[in-house]
Design brief:
The structure is a homodimer of 645-residue chains.
Chain A (H helix, E strand, L loop, with lengths): L3 H10 L14 E4 L5 H10 L6 H5 L28 H20 L11 E6 H5 L1 H13 L4 E7 L2 E2 L2 E2 L8 H7 L3 E5 L6 H13 L5 E6 L21 H10 L12 H31 L1 H12 L20 E2 H12 L6 E5 L3 H4 L8 E2 L7 E2 L4 E3 L4 H14 L3 E7 H4 L3 H10 L4 E5 L17 H7 L4 E3 L4 H13 L5 E4 L4 E2 L7 H4 L4 E4 L6 E5 L2 H17 L3 E5 L3 H5 L3 H7 L6 E4 L13 E3 L10 H7 L4 H15 L13
Parallel strand pairs in A: 1-2, 2-3, 3-7, 6-7, 9-12, 9-13, 10-11, 13-14, 14-16, 15-16, 19-20, 19-21, 21-22
Antiparallel strand pairs in A: 4-5, 8-17, 18-20
The structure holds calcium ion (2 copies).
The site of one calcium ion has 5 residues of chain A, from loops.
Chain lengths: 645, 645
C-alpha cells in the first residue's frame, strides 16, 4: 500500500489502450517486485483491462487470472515477474527495443516510436546481481525513456534492510550513469511523484530512477514491518484501514463510480492516442512504404517468404568447420533478410563469433561507437543480465534476439533462461565452447551437467548440431520458434560435414544418419560426437564385423514432438541403443539402453589429448559398443520409446 | 604483465609459509581473474611453493600442475577461479571467516587470528552480478582485513571496456561502503602500491579496493589491446620484451639467483611467522585450553565424538511436520555441539527456517545487530553471492557452512554451486519450498528442472528427505562430508513420519521402505511423494490386489556409492519400477522403468489443489502403477542397474 499512491499517479499519466494491450507504441510497465501483484491486478482492473472483480476475488486460486505472481499471458502484464531482479532487466530490454525501433523507423514528422518504459523495483531487486549487471549497462546505453521507481521501504523478508543492505543506492545508481530523483515521502507526496516523472522525461541522456521512500503496508496497523510483506492483513486491520481512507468498512471489492470515472479519462486518452498513432502510421505507410511494410511484418511475427533459402547448405565435400563458425556463417547469411534480428554477446564476440562483419553496434551515438539503429549489442561480461534483457526485447515485440557466451556460462543466466521457457520468449542462446573440446581452459569452462539441465527445463530447445546442415536446421527452428527459447550448443573445434545430414532431417530433432540393415546396435549422439560415432561405426564393421547404425539427435525437445511412428522408425525395437555424448549421461536413458558419457569434471589440456584421455575416440566408442552388443545378445530388446503411459 | 609489478609488491609483503600452505593464519590471495594464472603460477614458483620450472613449462598441458585456470587442489592456490566474479566473492567469504575466528578465539595478548585476505579482480569480475552482490555485503560487513586490487586495464575480450562498461567503479564501490585508493600508474608505481597497502591496513571499518590503472600486456608490442588478453605473445614480441626488462632474450624459464634471494626473504619471514604463531598457540592452549582444543579440532575437520546423538529421531507416532521445519529442528539440535557451523540465508530466514532461536547475527558490532562472533549470516537477497561466499568460508578451513533459499533460487547460484562441486567444498544448501507443494507462489517459484540439474552435476549430493529420520540422515551425510557439497530439498508442507524409515537406512541414499514379498511393482520416490507412494501402495492392494513395494531414494549420489549387491537388493530384477516425483522425470530412468513426474511448469493455487490438478494423489499414482504392471506383464524385467559397462 505504500506504493499504491505512486502507482496510481504513474498509471494515470501512462499511454495505453486496455482494449488493445498489444499496441506497439504503448507505454510499458513492469512490476519487478512481482510479489506485489495484488497492486498490479487492481490497477489493471481499474484502468480497463480485462480483469473483473471476480478475477480479483479469485486471487491466487488455481487457474484464476490472478496468480501469485504476474504472468506474461495476462492482458496488460508485460512480463512474468517474481524471481527478484528480473523485471528491471526486462524493462531495460524493452527500453533498448524502443530505442532501436525509434532509431530505425522514426522520420521527420513521423515519431512512430516514442513510448516510455516504467518499472517499479524494490530492495530485493536491487540486491540481486542480475539487476546490477543490467542497470550498469542501461546507464552506459543512456536509455532516457526508461523511468524506474525504487520502492525504498527498508523492508525485506528478513526484516529491516539494515541487517544486510546498507549501501547508498542513489550513489550506486549515479555511478552507473543514472539520473536519480528522490521523493522523500512516497506515501503521500502525490505531487512530488508527478513532478518527478515530468522531470525524468526531460532528461535526454540518462535513465531515471525515482527513489520513493515509502512505508510498507502504509496505513495498516503493522505498517513498516516485514509482517505485511507477504502475509494478508487481519480483518480488524482491514476494517480500520478502510475507515481511515473513507471507504465503507463492510464492503469488499467495491470500486466507487467516481473512481471509475477518473480512470476512464486515462483510458479514453489512451484509446485516442492509439487511434492517432494508427492514422499517423497510415500516412507513414504512404511516404515510407518499405519501412512501414517492414515494421508491420515484424509486428506480425512472420518472416519474409523464402527466408530459409538464405540458410547455408553443405555437402561432405565441404571443409570441416567448427560449429561456432558455422553459426557465424548463418548469422552472416540471414541478417540482411531478417532485420528483426538483434543480437550480441556477453563480451566474447571474437570467441562466440556472434557478430556479422558489417554490423553496427547498438550504442548511444555520443559514444562514437555505434547508434541506436545498430543491431549488435555489447553486453559486457553480464550473462544473466543479457538473458533477462533478451526476455525484455522479446516481450517488446517486433524482434528476434540472440546472445552469445560459452555454454558453461549460460548457467550463470539460469534464472533468466527459466523465465524465457516459462513465458515462452523465443530467445536464442549462441552457446559456444560446448564441451571438453574447448581444451586448455579446463574444467571450470567445460560443460558437464549443462545440457542435462536445460533439457530438463520444460519448453526449451537445446540444439547441439553436428555439422553445417544441422547448424542451419538449429537456426531455422530457433528463429521460426514463436514460444520456445533455444540454446544452441556449438563447438570450438572443427567438425566434418556429414554424409546423410540435411536441414530437413535435422529439423525433426533426430534422424537416422547412417542406416544399417539388420544393425547389431545403434549409436545415438549429438554435436561433435556424431562424426565420432560415424567413425566408430566404420571401425566396428571393419574390425569386429559389428553393424552399427548412427542416429543424430540434435534436439530432444523437437524430436519429442514428432509422431510416435517416426520416432520409433529412428529408435526401433530389437536393437540395443548406445548414446555417446561427452558430458553427463543424465537424461539419455530416455533414448538409449546404455550410455557413454562423462559423469565427472573435465581436464585442462589440448582438446585431442583430453578426448583421448577420456577415451572419446573410435576405439573407446567401439569397445563400449561391443560390450553393449554382447550384453543384449539373445535378450528381447524393446525400444526405450515404448512406455506404459 | 601490467599486473606483475603490483603482484610482486603484494606477495613480497604477504605472510605465508610455502612449505605449509595450509597454516590457518596465513594471508590469503585469490586471483579472481583466473585467466591470468600464468602470473599466479610464476609467483608461487618464485615464492617457494611446490611449483618447479618444469611445471611452468607444462602450462595448460594435460595432467600438469599448471592448468588453464587455477585449481583449488594446487599448493598455494586458495580457490579455483576462472568463472568471472567468483574469486572476489570467495575472498569476501575468507575475510568473513577470518573475522569470525578472530572474534571467537582472540584474547588479550593472544592474537590467534589476524591474517589478511588479498584479491586481484578485473573489469570482467566487476561486471558480473555475483561480485556486485558480495561486494555490497562486504561493505555492509565492514571487512577491514580484505584488500582487493582492481586491475583497471580498460580491456576485456570485446576490446576496450568503453563499449559496455563506463560506470564509475570508484563511486560504485564507495556506495557499497568500501575504501578506494587509486594508484594511477599501476605499471610502474611500485612505491605507490606499497603505500596503498599500508594505508589500507590502517582502515578499521571498511574493506579496501586499490584501483590499479594498468596497461594490459605492458611492455609488449601490443600493450593495451585485447590481443594480449588470452593469446600468447609472438616470439619477436617476447624477445624485445626480455631485452627491454634486461633479461637474456635467448633464455626461457630462467630465474636469476638474485631474484630468488630477494624472494627468499619473504619466505623466511613467513616461516618465522608460522613458528611464532605455533609458539603463541602453545601458550594459548595452556591459558585457554577449551578454545585451543576447539580450534585444533576444527582445523582437523573432525567432529566431536557422538555428535550424531544430537540428531533427532522420529517414530510414526510423531506428528507430521514440514521438512523445512525438520531441518530447523536439526539445526537447533546440533548448533551447540558443532561450533564450526556458520550459516545464513538469502533473506528468507522466516521461510527457510535456517536460524536457531538463540543465534547471534554475524554483524559488525557497530550495527548493534550482532557481532563477528555471531554465526548467523544475513546475506540479503543475494543467492549467487551467498553461494560463492560459502565456498570462500569453506576454503578458509575450520568451518562448516550452510545457506538457505527456496530450491528454485539455488539455480541463481548455479555458477557457485558448480565450483563447490568441482573444488570439493562441502557446503550445504538448505533449499526449501521444493516443489509445487509451495502452492500459491506459482510456477515462477516451483522447481521442475532443478533437481535434475543438480543431480547431473558431478560430486554433488542432492537430498530430498521424506520425513524426520531422513532429514536427520541428510544432515548427517552433508555435515560429515569432506569433499562434496549438498543441496537439501525441503518441503513447505507437512509430511508424516514414515513407518520403516531410519537415519541409518536413509544414510545409504536409498532403501526399501515398504517390503512386499512377490511384489508386482516397486514405487520409487523422494521427499514429499514418498508418503504418497505408501498411500498408493495401500490403495493398490486394497482396491486392485496389486502388491507395490516402496523404495525411498533421498540422494542419488550417495546411493550410487553403495555396493552393487546392496543396490540390486533395493532395485531387484523381475519387478517393474515406477518413479514418482513431482518434477522433471529426467534422470529417473537410471533407477526405474517408468516415470511419473511433471515435465511442464506448475501452477499457482493452494498446494493440495495443485497436487490434485496434476493427479499427484493416491488415485493418480495407482492408475499409473496399474498401467505399468499391465505393460510389463509377462515380459522379462531386468533391473535398471544392470548395465553393459
Ligand atoms: Ca501480456
Ligand atoms: Ca590449495
Amino acid at each position: 500500500m505504500g506504493l499504491a499512491p505512486a502507482a496510481h499517479v504513474l498509471y494515470s499519466q501512462m499511454r495505453f489502450n486496455p482494449k488493445n494491450p498489444e499496441w506497439l507504441n504503448r507505454d510499458r510497465f513492469v512490476l519487478s517486485n512481482g510479489h506485489a501483484c495484488a497492486l498490479l491486478y487492481s490497477l489493471l482492473h481499474l484502468f480497463g483491462y480485462d480483469f473483473s472483480l471476480d478475477d480479483l476475488r479469485n486471487f491466487r486460486q488455481l487457474n484464476s487470472k490472478t496468480p501469485g505472481h504476474p504472468e506474461f499471458e495476462l492482458p496488460g502484464v508485460e512480463v512474468t515477474t517474481g524471481p527478484l531482479g528480473q523485471g528491471i532487466c526486462n524493462a531495460i530490454g524493452m527500453a533498448m527495443a524502443q530505442a532501436h525501433i525509434a532509431a530505425r523507423f522514426n522520420k521527420p514528422n513521423f515519431e512512430i516510436s516514442n513510448n516510455y518504459t516504467y518499472c517499479i523495483f524494490g530492495d530485493g531487486c536491487m540486491m540481486e546481481g542480475v539487476a546490477s549487471e543490467a542497470m550498469s549497462l542501461a546507464g552506459h546505453l543512456k536509455l532516457n525513456k526508461l523511468i524506474a521507481f525504487y520502492d525504498d521501504n527498508h523492508i525485506s523478508i528478513d526484516g529491516n534492510t539494515n541487517c544486510a543492505f546498507t549501501e547508498d543506492v542513489t550513489q550506486r545508481l549515479e555511478a552507473y550513469g543514472w539520473n536519480v530523483i528522490w521523493v522523500k515521502d512516497g506515501n503521500n507526496d502525490i505531487e512530488g511523484v508527478a513532478k518527478a516523472i515530468e522531470q525524468a522525461k526531460k532528461v535526454t541522456d540518462k535513465p531515471t530512477c525515482i527513489r520513493l521512500t515509502t512505508t510498507i503496508g502504509y496505513g495498516s496497523l503493522n505498517e513498516g514491518t516485514h509482517g505485511v510483506h507477504g502475509s494478508p492483513l487481519k480483518p480488524a486491520d482491514i476494517k480500520q484501514l478502510k475507515e481511515k481512507w473513507g471507504f465503507n468498512p463492510d464492503e469488499s471489492f467495491v470500486v466507487p463510480q467516481e473512481v471509475h470515472d477518473l480512470y476512464q479519462k486515462t483510458i479514453d486518452s489512451g484509446i485516442a492516442a492509439e487511434q492517432e498513432w494508427n492514422a499517423l502510421f497510415s500516412k507513414y505507410a504512404v511516404q515510407y512504404p518499405e519501412e512501414a511494410a517492414e515494421l508491420s511484418r515484424r509486428i506480425s511475427g512472420e518472416f519474409p517468404a523464402n527466408w530459409t533459402s538464405k540458410l547455408p547448405v553443405y555437402t561432405p565435400a565441404d571443409a570441416a568447420v567448427a560449429s561456432r563458425k558455422l553459426s557465424e556463417i548463418v548469422i552472416e547469411s540471414v541478417h540482411d533478410t531478417l532485420p528483426e534480428l538483434i543480437g550480441g554477446s556477453a563480451d566474447l564476440t571474437g570467441s562466440n563469433l556472434t557478430r556479422w562483419k558489417e554490423a553496427i553496434d547498438f550504442q548511444p551515438p555520443s559514444t562514437g561507437l555505434g547508434t541506436y539503429a545498430g543491431r549488435y549489442i555489447r553486453y559486457g561480461v553480464r550473462e544473466h543480465g543479457m538473458g533477462a534483457i533478451m526476455n525484455g526485447i522479446s516481450a517488446y515485440g517486433a524482434f528476434k534476439t540472440y546472445g552469445g557466451t560459452f555454454l558453461n556460462f549460460v548457467s550463470y543466466a539460469s534464472g533468466a533462461l527459466r523465465l524465457s521457457a516459462l513465458s515462452g520468449h523465443p530467445v536464442i542462446w549462441v552457446a559456444t565452447h560446448d564441451s571438453i573440446g574447448l581444451g586448455e581452459d579446463g574444467p571450470t569452462h567445460q560443460p558437464i551437467e549443462t545440457l542435462a539441465h536445460f533439457r530438463a527445463l520444460p519448453n526449451c530447445m537445446v540444439w547441439r548440431p553436428a555439422d553445417g546442415n544441422e547448424t542451419s536446421a538449429a537456426y531455422k527452428q530457433a528463429l521460426e520458434s514463436k514460444h520456445t527459447p533455444s540454446v544452441i550448443a556449438l563447438s570450438r573445434q572443427n567438425l566434418p560435414q556429414l554424409e546423410g545430414s540435411s536441414i530437413a532431417k535435422a529439423s525433426r530433432g533426430g534422424y537416422t544418419l547412417v542406416e544399417k540393415a539388420d544393425a547389431d546396435i545403434i549409436l545415438i549422439s549429438t554435436g561433435s560426437e556424431v562424426s565420432l560415432a560415424v567413425e566408430a561405426s566404420k571401425f566396428l564393421e571393419e574390425t569386429k564385423g559389428i553393424k552399427a547404425g548412427v542416429v543424430s539427435l540434435p534436439d530432444f525437445h523437437t524430436f519429442d514432438q514428432q509422431s510416435h511412428d517416426y520416432r520409433l522408425s529412428v529408435l526401433p525395437d530389437g536393437v540395443p541403443i548406445l548414446s555417446i555424448e561427452v558430458m553427463s549421461t543424465s537424461g539419455w536413458a530416455k533414448y538409449s539402453h546404455q550410455q557413454f558419457g562423462l559423469d565427472r569434471f573435465g581436464a585442462s589440456g589440448p582438446a585431442p589429448k583430453v578426448y583421448d584421455f577420456f577415451e572419446f575416440n573410435k576405439e573407446g566408442v567401439a569397445s563400449r559398443a561391443e560390450k553393449t552388443v554382447a550384453f543384449y545378445k539373445g535378450k528381447h530388446v524393446s525400444s526405450p520409446l515404448n512406455k506404459a503411459f
